[in-house]
């Protein structure tokens, strides 16, 4: 089965690279920042003023259909895995489909009208103009699909700045996006991208007078640069999401859900469970169910030491290990396990680096605590005040309420895998930019628009 999957990826990627070689860079790609911004700026004006909401809806609906047709999702997912070496193909398929199907569109907007003795006030959401969208290597294509749908739904144009480690997959995804947009009559250039990612070009893009808003998903340096640009910014900050399992939880369900959430795309999502705090009286039973659900426990201190040496560099995750599978990581330290192993489980004290550092790999430290109070205190320390994401498995309403209030995280998940909070089995829109730093939370089309007020004095009140 593993060989068949590898062969499939190789065949798909070969076909994609062949097409790129024959057709050249997509028409949305520009080497120069000025040209990319100018094209998006001209198209955005036409998109804002010449296309009705109904017309925008038709364009967005066709884009969804086109991206879901044929092998598009599988092709770009396989190319992403081949290019970045991170994640799992089956989960990438879910992420891309999720981004297309559950990203809100123009239907998300509503006009607010207020009338009184002095007349009528309308408040509507209006596009910023042209947005610079900086995408990560961890979710490059899902971010492209999600951000494109959000941003153009609000009347904006977009210039993408791909991560250097995911240029080919980003360009291929944008080729499909722009092909659909142009076929449905949207202005050419509404979505563009830089083809030569560099710090210099990124700086030029963020400083460009034609850019009205910056959306940054990536490392702390990129987000800090966006926030220092002097322009409005949507910034996704760091996270280190804890999950608590207390003595009232359904332990079999909790074990399954924690493994599923922690291992999703090999722990690349920023919302995924990164450390587990289990009340001591249920920890052994919880662990038993986790081992039945795809966890492999690493017990030998020598093996744990080898894993630390492999996965940590100077107190930070080893980039060569980010997004790699549990079997791959174990093989590097001399242990061979079956392909059904999804997570490496390691019991540690609270101050262990596996607990305190966001590892971005399917490596889950389990910390035993005396009771819920100790679990909550430890969770607050491990989350480092990022206020990004956290989770709990419990049937104790007071415990759930206390943790939600104390953590103050943008996303808080109860009794489900973490990915339910972005729409996989959860009744909510999806988002691949979780804007904790700038406060927008899981982004929607509303996140990329500004409020405009229009007042008519002395008229249009009918009662």
TrEMBL record:
Named from the GO MF annotations, one term is: acetaldehyde dehydrogenase (acetylating) activity
Q: In terms of domain of life, where is this protein from? A: Bacteria
NCBIfam families registered for this protein in UniProt: PRK15398.1
Q: Which InterPro entries match?
A: Acetald_propionald_DH-rel, Ald_DH/histidinol_DH, Ald_DH_C, Ald_DH_N, Aldehyde_DH_dom
Protein name, as recorded: Aldehyde Dehydrogenase
One Pfam match, given by its short name, reads Aldedh
Please name the Gene3D superfamilies in this protein's record: Aldehyde Dehydrogenase, Chain A, domain 1 (3.40.605.10), Aldehyde Dehydrogenase, Chain A, domain 2 (3.40.309.10)
> Has UniProt tagged this entry with the keyword NAD?
yes
User: Is NAD among this UniProt entry's keywords?
Assistant: yes
Keyword terms: NAD, Oxidoreductase
Q: Which residues cross the membrane?
A: none
| Span of domain Aldehyde dehydrogenase | 25-292
